[in-house]
Amino acid sequence: xxxxxxxxxxxxxxxxxxxxxxxxxxxxxxxxxxxxxxxxxxxxxxxxxxxxxxxxxxxxxxxxxxxxxxxxxxxxxxxxxxxxxxxxxxxxxxxxxxxxxxxxxxxxxxxxxxxxxxxxxxxxxxxxxxxxxxxxxxxxxxxxxxxxxxxxxxxxxxxxxxxxxxxxxxxxxxxxxxxxxxxxxxxxxxxxxxxxxxxxxxxxxxxxxxxxxxxxxxxxxxxxxxxxxxxxxxxxxxxxxxxxxxxxxxxxxxxxxxxxxxxxxxxxxxxxxxxxxxxxxxxxxxxxxxxxxxxxxxxxxxxxxxxxxxxxxxxxxxxxxxxxxxxxxxxxxxxxxxxxxxxxxxxxxxxxxxxxxxxxxx
Length: 362
Description:
This protein is α/β, with parallel strands linked by helices. It has 2 domains: 7-154 and 318-352, Quinone Oxidoreductase, Chain A, domain 1 (Alpha-Beta Complex), CATH 3.90.180.10; 165-296, NAD(P)-binding Rossmann-like Domain (Rossmann fold, 3-Layer(aba) Sandwich), CATH 3.40.50. It has helices at 45-53, 98-101, 150-154, 156-169, 184-195, 207-215, 229-237, 252-261, 284-288, 305-313, 332-340, and strands spanning 7-15, 18-25, 34-42, 65-73, 85-87, 116-117, 130-133, 142-143, 176-180, 199-204, 220-223, 242-247, 262-270, 293-296, 323-328, 348-352. Helix 4 (156-169) packs across helix 5 (184-195) and helix 4 packs across helix 10.
């Protein structure tokens, strides 16, 4: 059993765009809880929004795409053992309330609680050396096979969110799907849709990302700035047309464009429009008369953890290819900045709390 220190390093949110490396107490766990030493934590757009907007009161320790090693288990914990390598899951619904009975898990009151913390108001805690894991999120914990990496474990949470969204589309094999935006999330959509025998047309503003989309299974790619964008999409789908569109960037023009392109009774799914108060024009007749559904999907579904683990750990979905940049804990502000404003060669950014400063970052 490893010796648990009294204090640890953590990157603490102190206000809008204010992240500070601080020394804080290692969380103390109760008899039904776990202490996990963090090995890898992905930088998620949701945390970026919270950090940049300053909408939530400080102090908090963010980071929720987390994997690590169980360092300590409470005396009443029976399901997990010290030393096990695990991927964590910070939101788990009660599965008993009105929202859960409708499988609207993200609307469940328990789901909206965060069950992992490194201190202060629970906020995920992955940007720290240790996290305390509460028992109500234990159903989301997945053991990492010996051949897989902590980074792969940290990717289970974003993969889960994409699987949830794909289920909402209710597609049939062979359907044509436009995926707009080929960042890390868009590429996950492209690969998972392709694995489920959908025909993906991928769109992005950056040619290198379109090349990656091809490698991830897209049958056709269209540059977002293409003046003949609609014609190019129609050419790719042929007479069958476009059955659905997934919008992975908060671009209102892409929503209107997709609404015009999809077939009658098709679906447009919003995955990145998370800023409240945002508004855009919508052709309401296309929803009523043409029966086109405009839907959203937010966050994860714990019941999909086995499926997410299957795709990731089998490497049918090889998430390792998406991870382009790694930063030690003390450089978390730089990691967040890069993820917020990606370079031409950047995709998924990871923070590695257990890695010393001297480690290579890229």
